Amino acid sequence: MVVYEPREDSFLIVDAAKKRVFGDVLEIGVGSGYVSKEMSRLDSVKKIVGVDINPKAIEYAKKNNSDKKIEYIESNLFENVSDEFDFIVCNPPYLPDEDFSDPALFGGKKGYEYIERMIPLSLSHLKDSGELILLFSSLTNKVEVDRIVEKNMLQSELLEEKYIGSFETLYVYSIRKRKELIQLKKLGVEPVFFRKGKRGFIFTGSYEGKKVGIKIKNTHAETDSIYNEVNMLKKVNELCVGPKLLWSNEDIVVYEFFEGVSIGDWIVDKNKDKVIDVLREVFDELRILDINKLDKKEMSHPHKHVLVSDKGNICLIDYERCRLSDNLSNVTGFCQFVTSSHFGESLKKKGIIIDKEEIIKLSKEYKKDYSDEAYHKLIKLIKNS
Ligand SMILES: C[S@@+](CC[C@H](N)C(=O)[O-])C[C@H]1O[C@@H](n2cnc3c(N)ncnc32)[C@H](O)[C@@H]1O
Known about the structure:
Elements: H1 8-18, E1 23-28, H2 34-40, E2 45-52, H3 55-64, E3 70-74, E4 85-90, E5 95-96, E6 106-108, H4 113-122, E7 126-137, H5 142-151, E8 154-163, E9 169-177, H6 179-187, E10 192-196, E11 200-207, E12 210-217, H7 225-238, E13 245-248, E14 252-256, E15 261-262, H8 263-266, H9 272-291, E16 294-295, E17 306-308, E18 314-316, E19 323-324, H10 330-338, H11 341-349, H12 356-369, H13 372-383
This protein binds S-adenosylmethionine (SAM).
Residues 4, 6, 9-10, 13, 28-32, 34-35, 51-54, 57, 76-77, 91-93, 103-104 line the site of S-adenosylmethionine.
């Protein structure tokens, strides 16, 4: 393995790092040792640990770029590193290559695989206040790097961007732990990415021995959705609706995880009677919300909002947009859904044929005064379909 000589990317990460680093610094993949040596010139830097998987690189760095502040260690990523650092600096192998021919240059088939492996491992070596300074290129795929950052509950800031010709741009990111990650760690929760929603990110984890869902805000979303979700979950939980809220603050909601699939997926292999039972249960919970003037919204397209367990228990999730209102669309929204072209077709395959004109008529009647009588007429129609 040859030693990576300093070039454009090395110079760019040095520019970015020298404006920021202090205290204890770890460099992953030192190559010639040029970056570590440059950082060691700063008075604010106390100690540098520089690692590389390539023994020749370590030998070269020790010989040509040594300093009393720097300790060079041969290590595959963090394997031989034990401490926590104020900064981790990394100009990784970031180019895509089928054959992965040179480990100094190529990060994997797609280019971002090395970064995907390195970032989660870096977290236990980064102080909570610490920062990972990471270089990558447009050939690595910036969208993927952003996804990796989000999945690990981190946040990034673009420090440098430089076009270097041949349709390639280099980027340097500052990556930090989100405050939610630090808070969850204090609670003893290790979040595992689950999915990205419109306004938030969902993680799973274990809290007080229970599997939990964890929702945090998407930093790009404008609305204060977490605050609303917490308030609304408290209200609906009192009505025995929704996943049980277990812990919250202004940034995080932790609730009991419900093992289930969306209602659209659930009905596929279920028989008519079971499907009718589940529809009835969903309608009844929506009716409870209507009675309590809580408008959940989005019930006319509730694919991700209605979960059903294998046994047929239901859970209405997601209260980000739920509001106190006199104009309620829970039951009526779900009426639209059960006669929508896609879900309506799935119901037909089960032999459940809901008269669309009739349900529209009964829905309108129900909407006039949300009376028990109007509701029971609707339910009778569903049961007899
Ligand atoms: C792009 S070079 C950067 C070298 C130097 N930091 C610079 O900027 O000039 C990437 C370096 O990462 C090292 N490397 C590759 N895989 C590694 C691993 N698993 N653990 C540690 N170092 C690794 C390579 O040997 C190479 O020296």
